[in-house]
What we know:
Elements: E1 11-16, E2 20-24, E3 29-32, H1 34-39, E4 67-73, E5 77-82, E6 89-92, H2 93-98, E7 103-104
Antiparallel strand pairs: 1-2, 2-3, 3-7, 4-5, 5-6
Zinc ion (ZN) binds at residues 41, 43, 45-46, 86, 88-89.
Amino acid sequence: MALKFSNKTRPKEVFVDDKLNILWADGTHSRYDFYPLRCLCVCAACVHEVTGEKLLDEAKIPKDIRPLASEYVGNYALGITWSDQHSTGLYTFKRLREDIPFEEGTRVN
Length: 109
Ligand SMILES: [Zn+2]
């Protein structure tokens, strides 16, 4: 069961193994599959900013997609550069905790 997001919920560490892992400040360890996470990108290239229409063609995303790099965007989101050359991937911490499915990991902080 996912814990609810609060404004104090921040990642402490992000790393990649066979999934994208986020260790949160509250001790939760979230593990995200790459392909669904890539499909859920809501940057301006993937989702129309005004209409909300999905512009991304999921069929064009390689099934072996993986993140090449990640960085914090302000203090509210994670930016991900993907192996399909998509470098504007944007995932707010709130979405990562509340809307995007993840598996809970067991790594001890
Ligand atoms: Zn995008």
